Amino acid sequence: MNKPRRIAVVGGSLGGLFAAVALYRRGFDVHVYERNAAPLAGRGAGIVTHDRLLAALASIDIAAGEDLGVRVAGRRTYARDGSIIAAMAFSQINTAWDRLLELLRMALPGERYHLGASLVGATPMTDGVSARFADGREIEADFLVGSDGIRSAVRGLVLPSARPAYAGYVAWRGLIEEAALSPAAHDALMHHFTFGLPPGEQVLAYPVAGANNAVAAGQRRCNLVWYRPADSAEALSRLLTDETGKQHDGGIPPPLIRQNVLADMRADADRLLAPAFAEVMRLSPQPILQPVFDLTVTRIVFGRIALIGDAAFVARPHVGAGVTKAAEDALALAVALDRADGVDGALAQFEAARLATGQRIVDRARELGTAIGATAEGSFRSADATMRETASLAFLEG
Questions:
Q1: Pairing between strand 305-307 and 301-302?
Q2: With a threshold of 0.85, does the pTM exceed it?
Q3: Partner of 222 at 20 to 30 A CA spacing, among 143, 253, 287, 298?
């Protein structure tokens, strides 16, 4: 393959923007095509950063200082009564999805980002790819990057049999303004990365930036994630069915969650969780319910099409590596496409390296997820192990 010049990136979230900015910085004629018609905002709430993510941002000339998010110095695990049962030093910056999106969007000229572009087809050509969108627009590119998430349309075209598999549990997510917390809950949750370990379940919470990406004390938010088993078809179906009786496979829009489901969840929070965690779930104006999935693939390069981020591998959230992996996928692909001395060989090396990394992350996340729903003696992870291993990439350094 000759060195491509025109690059189409399908998917305008964080991974797609990382790819676009990395390619744009290298002089490529790159355009991003996002299926949503309205600008993306408010997705995913909190994101845990790693040194590798900060390095990825620096490599595309985005300076991420302390204003990237909220730094915590350590981790704590709380018992049901709110007492501290374990603690450890662990410095980390917690940011927000909106904050990273803002930084990346600012680095790419606006005319290169196209909304309302839902991919419906991609046809290989002699010297590139022709892509078609639902609104009738057609484009041609030398290379196409699929970075369109867990339900990737690009993956559906090149690997139609590869579909995310349900892990047997769900994540409830709550987000609350710092000022809404009681003094006791504020003291418990806004200075550390915190955990609770009800039998067969797991909850974690940490401070993130507030409205307009504010990180000053008093203007931040508390982000909470609560993993709960829902291992039968009936249990999951109940959670994903709205008031009209319609079932939303793969995930239900937050406003459509039934009121009795929310009431049951909040009652369980009061019964099972430390008071500070229960308070967040009780006061969160719009909890989010997400079934947990994972996915592995055996290929990510298909001629002049490549998959990155969640379009390639989907890992359970416990490793906290989704954005970091997408960023490193994007950077590695940009380097491969910039290889004037042999793009085909560079893409083969890219594929081998990122397949291995993706598989390691998925495997690690599955290991960390074994405690969710576990009932057998010896199947629970200790508080120290949970704090040490959750949202940590130390296993990739070995």
A1: antiparallel
A2: yes
A3: 253
